[in-house]
Specification:
mainly alpha; Tetracycline Repressor, domain 2; about 65% helix; elongated; about 210 residues
Length: about 210
């Protein structure tokens, strides 16, 4: 979740009225969501303030509290929605094609200015904030792994992988090397890097 675009502002639900409260306008929700991701990428979760998000969105702080009761709940809701709203793994008709498409989408996300700052920051913050970490890992990690698992399902159905393929290890391998390269050590890659990585992953899957 071609290069991947920035985290998409989650599609707002139809205008709704909390019990006893005013209608929550979609345009304001979208402005706050966009401002949240920009602010999170700029200052990180620890320094993120709802006042700064509201100011960037051109909204009042009360508008945020009508939607999310805390910074934690706002972060979990918006990041989770962005993960769920991301693209499904492409079905190219072959395991290699699917793996290469997955790597291309992931590389695009990790190279984009917003995810490249947000993802490492939230992962690090999650180790210090167990409540945030558990919520994000459940919503984001599990969602992404379920989608990647469908890539393996298709390969098994086509006879490209055995039914007893080690799925846990395969899912770790799909994202791990590229995340380490682009997000942790931040090393540039050669034009054929994703092709070479796809070949190595396929060899590991069937080893």
């Amino acid at each position: 979740m071609p290069s991947s675009p920035a985290p998409r502002t989650p599609t707002a639900a139809p205008e709704r009225r909390p019990p006893g409260g005013p209608v929550l306008q979609d345009s304001v929700t979208e402005a706050i969501s966009a401002a949240f991701f920009e602010e999170l990428a700029t200052v990180g979760y620890a320094r993120l303030s709802l006042e700064a998000v509201a100011k960037r969105a051109g909204a009042g702080k009360a508008a945020i509290y009508r939607r999310w009761p805390s910074k934690l709940e706002m972060t979990v809701a918006l990041v989770s929605a962005a993960a769920v709203d991301g693209p499904e793994t492409a079905d190219t008709g072959t395991l290699r094609g699917d793996v290469l498409a997955f790597l291309t989408e992931l590389a695009g996300a990790l190279r984009h200015r917003l995810p490249s700052k947000i993802i490492p920051d939230l992962l690090a913050e999650g180790t210090r904030n167990p409540e945030l970490g558990q919520a994000l890992f459940t919503a984001v990690r599990d969602t992404r792994r379920r989608r990647a698992n469908r890539l393996l399902d298709r390969a098994v159905e086509r006879g490209e992988l055995p039914a007893d393929v080690d799925r846990e290890l395969a899912l770790d391998l799909l994202a791990g090397p590229l995340y380490w390269r682009l997000a942790v050590v931040q090393t540039r890659t050669a034009p054929d890097y994703l092709d070479r990585l796809a070949d190595k992953l396929l060899a590991a899957f069937v080893a």
